[in-house]
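> run fold GIY-YIG domain-containing protein
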Amino acid sequence: MKRMVYMALTDLAGRRLLHRMPLPMRPLPEQLPDLSCAVYAVEDENGKVCYVGSVYRPADPHGLASHIGEYLREDPRTSKWSRIYVLPLQPSTSEVEVRRFGGKVAGWLLPYDRERWPQAS
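> ok
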């Protein structure tokens, strides 16, 4: 993802954004930041966005890592995941806002694994 795209997405998050994390991360739960609320975009090894997801686990400070770990164990499509870009959200962000923002990000990035897109209303 180009830095300008990431920055535009952080602007779209508005007051919900916790802070910017423009560098990609490996999809390894033990290397992910401690976040309970976030939207994330996943790229394959060719730099194509294959998935956009969100996590809302206000009681779990390791919510993002737990969520990604579950996907890695349960969904064979994650074998193509190469990089994750994280848009960390304020812990006070409601689940509706997290899911809605995830839908907006998916609408911008158009991931090719789309079957689980959240609704952006």
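The helical segments are 3-13, 63-74, 95-109.
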